[in-house]
């Protein structure tokens, strides 16, 4: 996917959440460990929810099209996040701790990208938009971490 505008970053973020949902759901079916299966099912449902939330955020942001049309290609290129999107996913061979760490790493990188974009922004509408999405992603990352810990404690 070519990233040129903030709208493209939002599409990319939504795609990451969607792919994590699909991979976690698939790996939950393939995993032999009941604990890992529970964790992957939770991650799948959480990522599906995040995909919907990002879509709603985009829809609401369309009313402020100036922010979404902001050019940010060179910022994205400096902070591109590698993600495994095709074929076999490593979740299939991971234990619960490794799954949790990998999932939180994806979210940490997404938060880092939005922090970087926010710090580079000078337009108030763009800064506000990024601040809102950043707050959402940070809150969801904390919720994900807390709930994964509770599943691990079962």
Provide keyphrases for this structure.
single chain; 154 residues; mainly alpha; 6 helices; 0% strand; elongated
Overall description:
By secondary structure, this protein is mostly helical. 77% of the residues lie in helices and 0% in strands. It is built from 6 helices and no strands. Helix 5 packs antiparallel against helix 6. The longest helix is centred in the C-terminal third of the chain and has 30 residues, at 124-153. The relative contact order is 0.17. The model has no long low-confidence stretch (mean pLDDT 83).
Looking at the chains present, what oligomeric state does this protein adopt? single chain
Q: What is the CA-based Rg, rounded?
A: 16 Å
Percent in helix: over 70%
Distance between the termini: 39 Å
Helix and strand composition category: mainly alpha
Uncertain parts? none
Strand content: under 5%
Tell how many strands the DSSP assignment holds: 0
Mean of pLDDT:
83
At a glance:
By secondary structure, the chain is mostly helical. Helix content is 77%, strand content 0%.
Helix and strand layout, with pairings?
Layout: H1 6-30, H2 34-61, H3 65-68, H4 73-78, H5 96-120, H6 124-153
